[in-house]
């Protein structure tokens, strides 16, 4: 879309972005005038006190920039809780959620687990943003009974060892990516530079680290071809796998298997930005005020876990996973003839399940250690495509 058509930030937001821009310019100066796109994305999203996820602007919901499944409806968390409880019945232990947004998913999962009397030892939240930690605490304290809220604990770093279920809903898509492009002269890496007149600009240079493209260099890609790779996401999955003693890593995100991700027709990659419910392709638009994302290469994530000894337990679309976990049964708690309650619930379920909405765009990947196959993948498992 035309960037000029995006809503204008207010003066406070523009001033905030200018502070982050000054930090980025300082980093550019120290690095000789060029930084990788991955480093720029890291600063734009996570620079302390200034990055998109580190500052206080509203990010989720109608007043923010995008709506996630847990923000849309607690039905998502209630259904996911069924898979969580199945794993904890085998392993015991706790739930650890990475990047918990405003706390909606945690609330829904805990409510469902309490309803059936199968609460975890603890519900741990690993949140790197102090701002979001405060938002989560405020929300969960308001909606959970005191005894239930006491089970929630915030972490600043991964534990040395963990037993139970680790959840990451829309986390991997916000991990910084390197942008690489293939031309006749070979692979290049996209970076960010700046001048006094035009401000920040994207600029390629010869790829110095050939390991970045090792997994895709053998693919028969057309030229020109631009795409993303994320060693940081691989490293995150490896770190989670390393500390998992017994249990499951469950990733829910938009993405593809490697063959789909690096499809010859996907010549511009998957990089996308989200600002005030507008999706657009310009990552340099007001740094710090918008989300920057890339789709997930689920083949790479599965390989990172398997390299740490985890078993690939399942991979499928979100709709298939939720149906396997019994979302339709949960909907029947509300009488169909009670249109005032059932109609909104059916509309929410439609968004979660429809291939035209989130049902096929989002995928679910499960990796585990010391657990038996999961109900969420009993039908429609596509692990063989990874």
From TrEMBL:
Gene3D superfamilies: 3.40.50.12710. GO terms for molecular function: methyltransferase activity. The keyword rRNA processing does not apply. The keyword Repressor does not apply. It holds the Pfam family Methyltransf_28. One of its GO terms (biological process) is methylation. Keywords: Methyltransferase, Transferase. PANTHER family: PROTEIN ARGININE METHYLTRANSFERASE NDUFAF7, MITOCHONDRIAL. This is Class I SAM-dependent methyltransferase. The lineage of its organism: Bacteria, Pseudomonadati, Pseudomonadota, Betaproteobacteria, Nitrosomonadales.
